[in-house]
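Model: You mentioned two targets. I'll fold them one after the other.
Researcher: Yes, keep them separate.
Model: Target one:
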Amino acid sequence: MAPEHVDVLIVGAGLSGVGAACRLQERLPGKSFAILEARGAIGGTWDLFRFPGIRSDSDMFTLSYPFRPWRQAQAIADGATILDYVRATAREHGLERKIRFRHRVVGAEWSSADARWSVEVERGDSGETVRMTCGFLFTCTGYYRYDEGHSPELDGADRFGGAIVHPQFWPEDADYEGKRVVVIGSGATAVTMIPVLAERAAHVTMLQRSPSYVIALPAVDPLAGLLGRLLPTRLIYPVVRWKNVLLTLAVYSFSRRRPAAMRRLLRKGLEHRLPAGFDLDTHIRWSQGS
C-alpha cells in the first residue's frame, strides 16, 4: 500500500505549527497538508509547561500572529492565556481536523529522484509505525525534547534529602510552602518562577553561573493602552509591535556599545525600586568587565 501523500507536512501543533498552517491555508489554499503532533493536545510549550508563574518572555504584540492581533491588555501574558490564544486560533481556522495527535516523527529522508520527503511516524495511539510522503517538510518542533529536559549531573544529588524538581515536569502536588528553595539558573524560566515561589516559600535563592541583569517593566504596555482609546485594533498592533522591536534593538545596541552606562542605568533602577539605604554592593555583585 502506497504511503499517504500531502503537499506539506507540518511537524508540531504549537504556536509555530498553528501559525504555519494558517499562513499556508491563506496563501496556498489549493495545497493539501497535515499537522503531526507527538502529544495529545494543541499548544506545544504552552500546554506542556505547568510550573508556577509560567508566562511569555517576549511581549505578545511581538510574539502573536499578525493575522490575529493580540487584544489582551497585558503585553507579558501568563501561560494559560497564551494557550487559549493558540487554541482559539487553531479552532477559528479549522485546523483541529488537520491535526493528527500522538504522531511522532522519528525519521525523514529526501529523494531527489521523486522530489519528495519520506517521513517515518510512530503512532502513540496504536503503537504502529507508518510512512507518509510530502513535497515540503515544515518542522515546527522547537529546540528541545519534550520528554527529556536537560538535567546536569550534580555530585551528591542522590544524598539530598529534599525534593529535586525539573520545571519541565512540574508535578501538580509539588509542595514548597514554608520551605527553603534553590533555583538553579537565571534564564527566563527562573525569572518567571521565582516571584511566585517567593510568595509561599520560606526563602528562595537563585543560583547562577554568570551575572545577569533584569529590568522591571510594566506588564501592561502603556502605549497600547493609550492607543486603545484612540485607534482600532488593526492599527494599534503594528505600531506597538514595531515600537517593542525597535526598543529591544536599541537596548541591545546600547548595552554592547556603552556597557558601563547601561550598568549605571540598571543600578539607578534598582535604587528606585528597593528600600532606601539598601546595600546594593553587598547583595548584588556587579561584573566589572561588562
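Model: Target two:
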Amino acid sequence: MKVIGITGTAGSGKGTIAEYLVDKYKFKHLSVRNFIVQEIKRRGMEVNRDSMIIIADYYRKTYNPGYMLGEIYKKAKKLNQHTVIESIRATGEVEALRKNRDFILWGIDVPIKIRYERIKERGEEADTVSFEEFKDQEERETLSGEKHRGSINECVKMANIVFKNIGSKKDLEKRIDLEIKSLL
C-alpha cells in the first residue's frame, strides 16, 4: 500500500492529480478540504477560504501540526489500499506523515495568474474572490513558516517530486504515469 500526499497552491491541479489516480489506478481519495468543510458546517460558518484557513490553523495549533493528517492517514490505513491524500498545507503535516514508510509527497506548482483563472473556471463556493483577495489568501497560506500554519511553498520544497503543471491535462497525466510506474 502506498499513500501519496499532494501539496500545492490553490488551483495548481491537486484535484486533477487525485482524480486521475482514482480513475486510472484505483486509488482511494481522502481530502483535507472535506475534513475542514465538515467542521466549518458543524460550526455554522460560511464555507470560504478564510473559514478554511481559520479551522485548519485551529486544529494544527490546538492539537498538533499533524493532527488532521494523522486522522486522515488512519482512514487510509483502514482502507488498506493505495490512497491519495489531497491538500497538505503545513510543514508539520509533512513531518508527521513522513514517519510512515508507505508515504510519499508530491508537490505541484503553477504561476498565480494561471491558477486564478482555473479557480474561477471551477466555480467552487470557496473560490469566489477577486484576484487581490486570492493573492492575499495565498500569502497567508504559503509564507507563514510556522509548523501549525499553512506553509505551502515550504511543503512543495519538501516534496519527493514536484510537477510544474503549466501544460495540458494530457501532459500532466503522462508525468503521473511515469511517476506511478516507478513507485508501484
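Researcher: Noted. Anything on target two?
Model: The mean pLDDT is 89.
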